[in-house]
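I'll show a typical protein example:
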Amino acid sequence: MLAEGTSMTVVDDQIGSPTRAKHLANALWRIAAVRDASGLFYFTGAGVASWYDVAMAVWKELPELDVLPAGVTVALGGTISFPRPAMRPAVSVLDKRATWDLIRYTPPHWREGVAQSTREFIPASKAG
């Protein structure tokens, strides 16, 4: 939306741990390689953020890719502005340290994952 010239209003009162799919895939391969692994495994990217934080991280990458039209903004919005059939928790941060320790892998901070994904996605979307 932002790269297409559409400003956005994004929820700023829901907190989680954004996770890049490539980092999750890496973790899944590592879990599968642990011979006696069993039970529940929690995995997310490092750090915590609101959806607004994520949108701003994307917005900050777009000028570097020369695809942020003038005047495009990201505005704060509360959950109440976006009614959904299911209630969303205000904070949904998982304790993933045991999994990180088991697989000897701490993923990069979510900002790095967002930046990497943005840099990969935008050129692909411009090409086709």
User: Anything to note?
Assistant: The helical segments are 21-33, 51-61, 97-103, 110-127.
